[in-house]
Specification:
This protein has 490 residues and is of the alpha/beta class. The chain has a domain of 224 residues: HUPs (Rossmann fold), CATH 3.40.50. Helices cover 50% and strands 6% of the residues. It has 17 helices and eight strands. The strands form two sheets. Strands 3-2-1-4-6-5 form a six-stranded mixed beta sheet, sandwiched between helices. Strand 5 and strand 6 form a beta hairpin. Helix 4 packs parallel to helix 12. The radius of gyration is 28 Å and the shape is globular.
């Protein structure tokens, strides 16, 4: 177990860390970007930075400090509320104290949000081998902000609450970057050029963090005991001790993240919150939905074709593609049902909760209509049926000449042949969209694309064709290899 940084005296050690932060701050004109998640580590790092700057003379507070927090829009609602409250307090207090500190809440682009990709495009729930969410929801928003700082100032210093004691892997990465330092405490940023990383609490243990937060009052007016209680509530045993030995569980095991995350076996923090606090039972529908998203074998929910319409084989089975239309509609219903239930039955502070934003619903509707050619336009109907309210949007594309009766007739004609229905529907929608264009260049390519997606007789026919195509390609490669051997002998 690592030694405490406070073993030779708490006050003197804190003073040394504050003095270090002041030296790093005053050594250049490069703005700071402090990563803040609302958790204990980022809170401790920000508090050190805040203390260091506030204790400087006004004339030495010469450069700005930007506190950034990325809201994935699917964060644990309790944590999300805490972070929003904290960011507001940071800005208000910094203004009152005339400090060059400003907090920013970052959001993913609309086309990158979780629900737009899962419901709109049909991306399956994330898995370790298809971890499509982290880059879109977390990394891109923060990197975009930092890149803008670099663009405006030439460089940026990113302040993080990362600690070597978090894991052996984290320690190895941090120590590797330390060897490349060219200035005191500033490591190169492996992912962003012209930016450096400062980790003021890199040597702290988990208990050092809690000791510091409990001993030093928050600089922006929140109560660190509330943060402790949140961690305690998210621990399965309900305990969050500050003085521990190697056998004692700690709050460090409480990990907060997205409530929809399927990259973990179980959302232990939300489960513990519900178990430890009856007032948080309103999150049960969220926990149930998350568990239902985490399907081991979800082939029955996914198309046998990839997003492009191609069939790709792995052994004797096709690699599953995006969620089917039925599955995407079901996930939409489930999220709206959970949101409606929480608004009706939850405590007062969650009566306006948004598990999915109207902007996302509009984008999902656009994708269904324009990219999926799902002319049924079912999203507004689902929204009204589940919520009891009309969908706050007019029809996305009012140039359609196909009524519900037309599509019902088409479905009746195609019967059980879903591929035939999708083929005709897609071709009709493509032709309709090109009809009003002055130049119809690209029409035949678009029609051909739809034909390639659904020309098969059925799934078995598609698998048979894909298997024969793969076998033929492998045979051709083998033939080329044999010819190359013959050529070598000559």
């Amino acid at each position: 177990m690592a030694d405490s940084v406070f073993q030779d005296g708490f006050s003197s050690a804190v003073s040394d860390y504050v003095a270090e932060a002041q030296r790093v701050y005053k050594s250049d004109e490069i703005p700071w970007v402090v990563g803040y998640s609302g958790g204990k580590d980022s809170t401790a790092a920000l508090q050190l930075v805040w203390t260091a700057i506030s204790e400087l003379p006004a004339e030495e507070r010469h450069k700005s400090v930007h506190v950034i927090s990325t809201d994935t829009l699917v964060e644990n609602p309790v944590v999300s509320s805490w972070v929003s409250h904290s960011l507001k307090a940071i800005n208000e207090t910094a203004t009152q104290e005339e400090l060059p500190i400003e907090a920013h809440q970052l959001l993913p682009d609309l086309h990158d949000t979780f629900w737009v990709n899962l419901m709109g495009r049909g991306y399956p729930a994330p898995r370790p081998k298809f971890r499509w969410c982290t880059e879109r929801l977390k990394i891109k928003p923060s990197n975009r902000f930092i890149s803008e700082m670099v663009k405006q100032n030439g460089e940026a210093i990113v302040v993080l609450g990362t600690r070597k004691a978090e894991s052996s892997r984290r320690a190895a990465v941090m120590e590797g970057l330390e060897s490349e330092r060219i200035r005191e405490k500033l490591s190169p940023n492996a992912s962003l050029p012209n930016s450096l990383v400062y980790s003021p609490i890199e040597a702290w243990t988990n208990d050092d963090v809690w000791t510091y937060l409990m001993q030093v009052k928050s600089k922006w007016g929140i109560d660190h005991k509330d943060l402790l209680n949140m961690y305690q509530g998210a621990s399965e045993d309900g305990e969050c001790p500050l003085v521990v030995d190697t056998s004692t569980p700690s709050c460090g095991s409480s990990r907060f993240g997205c409530w929809v995350c399927t990259l973990v076996d179980k959302d232990r923090s939300m489960t513990a919150m519900i178990q430890n606090d009856a007032e948080k039972e309103w999150m049960l529908p969220l926990l149930k939905l998350r568990d239902d998203l985490d399907v081991g074998d979800d082939r029955h929910l996914r198309d046998f074709r990839r997003m492009s319409g191609n069939v790709q084989m792995f052994g004797d089975r096709p690699i599953p593609g995006p969620y089917t239309q039925d599955a995407r509609q079901t996930w939409l219903e489930r999220v709206l049902e959970a949101q409606t239930w929480v608004r009706k039955n939850g405590p007062a502070h969650v009566r306006e909760i948004q598990l999915i934003r109207i902007e996302e619903l509009r984008e999902i509707r656009r994708l269904w209509l324009t990219e999926k050619h799902e002319m049924e336009d079912l999203l507004p109907k689902i929204f009204e049926r589940v919520t009891g309210e009309p969908f706050p949007d007019e029809r996305y594309d009012d140039t359609t000449s196909f009524t519900e009766e037309d599509l019902a007739l088409l479905a009746e004609i195609c019967g059980e042949d879903r591929l035939h229905y999708e083929l005709v529907r897609g071709m009709l929608d493509v032709e309709r969209r090109y009809r009003l264009m002055t130049r119809r260049a690209g029409l035949f390519d678009a029609l051909e694309k739809e034909i390639k997606k659904a020309f098969y007789e059925n799934e078995d026919d598609a698998i048979d064709r894909a298997t024969k195509r793969r076998d033929a390609m492998e045979a051709a490669k083998e033939g080329d290899y044999q010819l190359s051997l013959i050529g070598g002998d000559q």
